[in-house]
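Write out this protein's structure.
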Amino acid sequence: MSAVDNLLNKSCICRHWACVVLAVAGLSMVAAVPPAWSGVLDRIAESGQMVAGTRADTPPFASRRAGGGFEGFSVDLLEILRAAVEAEVGRPVSLELRAVTPADRLDRVAAGELHIVCGITTPTWEREAVVDFTVPFFRDGTRVLSYRETVEAGVTLDTMRIGVAQGTTTSAIVAEELPTAAFTTYPDMDSAMAALAAGEIDGVSNIGVALLGLASRAEPRRSVVLLPRTAPLGTEALSCVVPEDDSDWRDLINHTLVGLYDGIGDYRGAYVDLYDRWFGRDGVMVYPLDRSTRDYLEHINIWAQ
């Protein structure tokens, strides 16, 4: 049994349509309430396939395996969502994963190519004009990764040359918080990290978990620091991206995500199991779930019982 299967078995995260009892001529009969789906759920029910996007360059959040395919926190999250969709539509559903970039992820959802994207995506009102967002499933701070030798040589944040990925909210945060720094846009995080290694820039900015993941697989390994060392430049909540105006689909994803957070206040439950697999003490990269993020996710559930 896989780690994802264990997570699914430990949580109750799937919706089931109720049945209604109809009395006809003194006889009772049970009739299933027909689904009111439209859009994505109808297409998945017909095809048996959920088409999702995720990043290929943000380990261990999401990246390509050496032998092909994808792995990471958001990949396992999408598998949990797939199982919930399968229970909802009442037929086997497979998960097809496609790599997305910060520049194309929203357009591909809006165009109907992808049913959902779960990765390092922050909701903004501008983005909300073309897609919808689910409740958040992660939160982290925006920082700048630099080599320790660069910092020790006296290069400060406000004078750094900083690389950011195209199509991200990071550039706006860096520009606002570090107005005297110079920043360069790259097509993806791998390109920005390559520029850092070549000495073309002094730092790379993104959320902390993504930066440490990229640094952990860099060759040769070099000592790095995350700046600022105390409070981050900004705090970003990460949500899944779904098509606009498809409430049945968005509701199912939200219901599943909120179910994952059961027990998180006591650092237990399905979400904590998933988080620890990738970021816990024995995970791929140690990045503890801090109290403020725990509390934030715990209180996301705004729906009355």
